[in-house]
Amino acid sequence: MLKPLRFHAFFLFALVIFLFLISFIYWPGLNGPFLFDDYPNLSPMNNYGGITSFDNLLRFLFETQGSSGRFISLLTFVMNDQAWPASPFSLKSTNLAFHLINALLFVLVVKQLLTLVNFSGGEKYRYYIALIVALIWALHPINVSTVLYAIQRMAQISTLFSLIAMYVTLKFCSESALHSNLWAWVKYSFVFGCIVVVGVFAKENTFVTLFIAGLCIAVFVSNAEERCHYRSLWLLIFVFIPLLLFSLFYFYFSAETMGAAWLRRPFTMDERLMSEMRIVARYIWLIISPTSVGGGLYHDDYDISRSFTAPLSTFYCFLLNVFIIAIAIVFKKNRLFFIGVLWFYIGHSLESTFVPLELYFEHRNYFPMMGLFIAVLGMIQPLLGMQRLKWFFVGVALLLLPLLGFLTQQRVLLWGDEGRLFYTWSKEKPTSSRARSQYVGYLVNQGYFDEAKKEALDIREKIPDELSSYILNIYIECISGETIEEISVANAISVARVSGYENSSYVMLRSLSKRNLVDECGGFSNVDILRVFQSIGDNPKYMAGGLYASNYYYYLGELYSRLRQLSPAVINLDKAYEARPNITFPLIQAQWLADAGLFKDAYRYLDKARAAPPQTRYIKVSDDSQIHNVEKYIENSKSRWEK
């Protein structure tokens, strides 16, 4: 046996090698492109000219969507860069740093669990097992979509706080002398509660840590009269009451918002729940059979379960998930297996149940999959015995870890090469509008217009019921100097009334509208764009919810202003403000009216801006500078008109 000092030195050396290995594998991907949700979440850095003042910082942190605002995560992005587009290497290298920190925390959590279940082999052996388990997690290729997808730092920071909360909980569980001490419970509860609350403001997923910690309290803290009088009270306050409050919040306060969100989705709540049975089963398969291919970001073409037998795999996956949970409950005396299985399913409970999110993203496994590794650890110990278990982990270290490292590096190399990445995803997902459109956008940016047009036509054939596929073809023809045929415009107008919601159509239409100011597309002018917009207004999926209706009327008003039609431009911004009050709208209207010489109306809208409610979620930020700038603009316009 190694002496304590030698053991600590050797273990620290192993940790350093561990961290270096992960960094080496991920390094080629740190200059990869920004993707999908990176843009809407991080581009608001530039909404007020960059993060150049404390007020601008507060606006970026708190003028966000989502129930918590996630300002803790957003603050870390500001530490990387204060304007958009930011440096991919800066953002993604910080993501890698968080990944390494989470791996180290996972080592501590696993080691503490092994201690609590009296895992045989001694303290030092438990550290090495925990290190190997954490290394398997850290090197798993499914985590590439979290580490190298910049905005998913939110999932990483949420996991960081969840792991800290779990370690604090497990340490408390191991101190049996504290269980009958009220003050010890109060101190633990305060620390645990603060960690979870801060984590929720990184990403809402941290909320599920309450239930995993409650599970550990229930398993490891005896409620016998002579041992503890407080376990049931703690579970009531930190598990059952939060669950009740969350349910009330969801079904009462968020009912309208959630209802609008469901209207935008191509599936109902029942269909989502059935589809997620298959998706969670697929997650399990991807975790236990890692691969370097198929790990794309976009799964908007995922086959929706319309019933338990359509497709039939829905029923089989339902049985599989029920069987796994039932086995964990039946063998709950194997505490590692029991906690690990429920950790995985509880970890998925927020994003894979009734919240109207999109169906499938691999980064949702970042925290839950830790539970599967804990469950496997609990399962193999009684099967192998102590002596064989040691050789098992030697085999894992020699065979599985190099394989995982190789598979992950192959995926990382792909994520670091923009052209190959977009091409591969497009070929892997031929019916994914996002994957295909992203590749077309890349071809356009590289000047390969003929190839882009060919790809765009193929998208329209394979995905005929989405507006973006029609707008994409018009967009490519426009920028390549071709004349757009009327049938293309008519098709876009027709599909706009029935298409599912997709923000990319807005982006392309606004880009075309701006282009038409200086160089009109042949056969497609701002008037045609207006016709498409008016059809979008007849589509309830684009108008579901105040935010989306507000965006629609804002874009429509912006388009009318380009057509120099002041009255409908102002009217549509009035509708945008009515749908979602925002000081930006009356300030824009005031400038338009000042340009037209209607100063009385301009000042009226300036007063409306002064009365607008604050845009930040939790804190009042002064809008005086914006109002002052527009007031000065009106005065300058007045001076010009008087001359």
Distance between the termini: 93 Å
Number of helices: 28
Q: Radius of gyration, rounded?
A: 28 Å
Number of domains: 3
Helix content: 55-70%
| Helix-strand string | HHHHHHHHHHHHHHHHHHHHHHHHHHHH
Average per-residue pLDDT, rounded, comes to 88
Task: Summarize the biggest pleated sheet.
Answer: none
Classification by helices and strands: mainly alpha
Low-confidence stretches: none
Strand content: under 5%
Shape: globular
What would you call the quaternary organization?
single chain
Quick one: how many beta strands? 0
How would you describe this structure to a colleague?
The radius of gyration is 28 Å and the shape is globular. It is an all-alpha fold and 643 residues long. It folds into three domains: 4-29 and 86-267 and 276-358 and 366-415, no CATH class; 420-542, Serine Threonine Protein Phosphatase 5, Tetratricopeptide repeat, CATH 1.25.40; 581-643. The longest helix is centred in the middle third of the chain and has 48 residues, at 368-415. The chain has helices spanning 4-26, 38-42, 54-62, 71-80, 88-116, 123-139, 144-147, 153-174, 182-200, 209-220, 231-253, 255-264, 269-288, 313-330, 335-347, 368-415, 418-428, 433-445, 449-462, 467-479, 486-496, 503-515, 526-536, 546-562, 566-579, 584-595, 599-610, 624-642.
